[in-house]
From TrEMBL:
GO molecular function, one term: zinc ion binding
Keyword match Ribosomal protein: no
GO CC term, one of those recorded: nucleus
Compartments, as annotated in UniProt: Nucleus
Domain of life of the native organism: Eukaryota
DUF659 domain mapped to chain residues: 158-264
Claim: Nucleus is one of the keywords in the record: yes
Name recorded for this polypeptide: 23362_t:CDS:1
Keyword tags: Metal-binding, Nucleus, Zinc, Zinc-finger
Length: 265
C-alpha cells in the first residue's frame, strides 16, 4: 500500500464504525484515518467510500474529508467529490479510481437517461428541426450521434423515421392542445386568412388567429388544391374555423387580397 509522499498520514486499523465519529471534525491533518480496505485500485461503488465522513450533527448534511489529501468539505457533494478525486486531488489516488471517477464526473455514464429526460430532449430537438427547417436526413448522420454521446452517453438520439412521425406528431398534438386551451379563454379574436400557391402548385390556405395581446396562432394550414375556390367554398371554410372556436369570440376577419376571398366577405 502506498501513501502520499509527504508522509502526513497515519494509518489506523479501524472498523467502519469509527469512520462516522464526531471526533473527526476536530481532527488535524496528521491524524485523519486511512482505511486499509479499498486501496487496491478497485473503483469504488460509491464515491463516499473514498472519503471520511464528517458528522455535522443530527439532520445536517454530512461533511467529507478526502482520504488521500485531507481536503475537507463542510457538506459533501458527490459530483464535487468525484471531480476532486478525478482531477484535483494532490494525494496518491490509484489510477483506476481516477479514471473511473473522471468518466463518472464528466460523462454522466452511470445515470442512464430516464424517460422524462429523453422526452424533453426529443421535444427540444424537434422544435429546433422544425423552426430551422433542417432536413430529417441530417439526423441519420453518425456525427449527430457522436455529438449527443459527447453530451450524455445515456441518451439515444431518435432515428429520422421516429423524428418525422411519432415525435413530430406528439409535438404537434402538444401545440394544438395548448392553443385550444388558450383560445378557449380568449376574447376579441381576429381571424386572418391568407392563401398562396406553393412551389408544387398546391393551393394553401392559412387560418391565423390573432388574440388581443397580439399573440398569433396558426390555427390551420389547409391544402385546398382539389377544390374549386368559389366564394361559397371559402365562406364555408371560414365559418368552419369560426364555429370550431366559437363565433362570439371573434370581432374581426381579415382577408388577403385574393378576389374570391373578397367575395366571401
Ligand atoms: Zn484529495
Amino acid at each position: 500500500m502506498e501513501y502520499a509522499a509527504n508522509n502526513e498520514y497515519t494509518e489506523y486499523a479501524t472498523n467502519n464504525d469509527d469512520r462516522i465519529s464526531n471526533d473527526l471534525v476536530s481532527e488535524t491533518a496528521s491524524s485523519i484515518q486511512i482505511e486499509s480496505s479499498n486501496n487496491s485500485g478497485r473503483p469504488p461503488a460509491d464515491v463516499w467510500e473514498e472519503f471520511n465522513t464528517i458528522n455535522n450533527g443530527a439532520g445536517k448534511h454530512k461533511g467529507a474529508s478526502c482520504r488521500y489529501c485531507n481536503q475537507k468539505w463542510s457538506r459533501g457533494r458527490a459530483h464535487e467529490m468525484k471531480s476532486h478525486l478525478a482531477l484535483k486531488c494532490k494525494g496518491n489516488v490509484p489510477r483506476e479510481i481516477r479514471l473511473k471517477l473522471f468518466v463518472d464526473a464528466y460523462y454522466d455514464v452511470k445515470e442512464a437517461i430516464n424517460k422524462a429526460k429523453e422526452k424533453r430532449a426529443n421535444q427540444s430537438l424537434i422544435k429546433w428541426i422544425v423552426y430551422s427547417g433542417i432536413s430529417f436526413s441530417a439526423f441519420d448522420n453518425p456525427y449527430f450521434e457522436d455529438y449527443t454521446k459527447a453530451l450524455n452517453l445515456g441518451y439515444n438520439p431518435p432515428k429520422r423515421s421516429a423524428l418525422a412521425t411519432s415525435i413530430l406528431d406528439a409535438e404537434a398534438a402538444n401545440i394544438i392542445i395548448k392553443m385550444d386551451k388558450e383560445l378557449s379563454k380568449a376574447k376579441n379574436l381576429t381571424l386572418c386568412i391568407d392563401s398562396w400557391c406553393s412551389p408544387l402548385k398546391h393551393s394553401i390556405y392559412a387560418f391565423v388567429i390573432i388574440a388581443s395581446e397580439r399573440k398569433q396562432y396558426v390555427y390551420s394550414l389547409r391544402d385546398f388544391s382539389k377544390f374549386t375556390h368559389s366564394a361559397k367554398f371559402n365562406a364555408e371554410k371560414i365559418i368552419e374555423v369560426l364555429e370550431s372556436i366559437g363565433l362570439k369570440k371573434f370581432t374581426a376577419i381579415v382577408f388577403d387580397a385574393e378576389s374570391s376571398m373578397m367575395v366571401a366577405k
